[in-house]
Amino acid sequence: MKKILLFACCALGLSACNMTGEKQDAVQQERDSLQRIINEKDIELDDILSTFNEVQEGIRRINEAEGRVTIAEGNPESASSREVIHENMEFIQQAMQQNREMIAQLQEKLKNSSIRATKMQKTIENLQSQIEAQAARIQELEASLAEKDALIEAQGNAIAGLSNDVASLTEENKQKAEKVQQQDKELNSAWFVFGTKSELKEQKILAKGDVLKSDDFNKDYFTKIDIRYDKDLKFYSKSAQLLSTHPAGTYQLAKDNQGQYELHITDPQKFWSVSKYLVVLVK
Question: What is the dihedral of CA 121, 127, 129, 130, to 10 degrees?
Fold first, then answer.
């Protein structure tokens, strides 16, 4: 009887040991499964946080670029400022597009994730609001830049037009000045000739005792002078007589040290008032 009882106790002990081992295995498997779930969630969370940080960094860099554009906008006429504006606006557009794409990725990751984080969703929505606010500011900045560009272009066109007008007026004034100078020169031009009687007749300057009565006299035989400056005329002859008419008291006909005649015009305006042609007979 004792042997039977001992055998029964051993059997019960072995059965209890087997049950304990099975429970331990089940607990370990459950722990392993939970750890895998935790690891997967950690990976998902790290991925979401990494993208979140990238979006925040993008927003920060856009704000910096926006500040540089605003500073350069104060002097849009400068070539260096225009280059800064162009480079930063190009960067802002690219960064904003990247941020929008990453926000869409965040929303998709959170949607497909096993993580149910209401606060994370609100944070993403807040990021999206920041991006949209930035977009609105950038749009206003672009409009302001476009308005200033149009103003600068209009000013440039106006300046170019003024430059053309100035150039045209300068040329016109130059032509007028040349014309006035030419007219003034003509008004102050006179012609003189001296020669023997035969020479004057040959050139049809003297005909039948009259001076310059014929219109076909040889004008090329005369010497052109400016009455404002040419007031002393030499005839290189010891005999000289004025044949053309000129007011008395406006000139002196005298001999030089060599006994040759020369004419000193003392009142040019009056002297040439009767005739702009001076004819002197010499021997």
Answer: 170
Fold of 12-152: Methane Monooxygenase Hydroxylase; Chain G, domain 1 (1.20.58)
Domain with CATH 1.20.58 in the chain: 12-152
> Of the ranges 127-131, 134-138, 150-154, which one carries the lowest mean pLDDT score?
150-154
Within 8 A by CB and 6+ apart from 224, the residues are: 189, 190, 191
Q: Using an 8 Å Cβ cutoff, are 207 and 247 in contact?
A: no
Q: Which long-range contacts (CB under 8 A, 24 or more apart) does 97-103 make?
A: 98/58, 99/55, 99/58, 99/59, 99/62, 99/131, 100/131, 102/51, 102/54, 102/55, 102/58, 103/55, 103/127, 103/128, 103/131
Global pTM? 0.45
Q: Return the closest-CA partner of residue 246 out of 264, 226, 260, 219.
A: 264
Residue environment code for 58-84, b if the CB has 16+ CB neighbours within 10 A, otherwise e: bbeebeebbebbeebeeeeeeeebbeb
Burial zone of 56 (CB within 10 Å; 0-12 exposed, 13-18 middle, 19+ buried)? middle
Number of H helices, E strands in the chain: 5, 9
In the numeric block, the tokens 């004025």 are attached to 242
pLDDT tens-digit readout, 235-276: 999 999 999 999 999 999 999 999 999 999 999 999 999 999
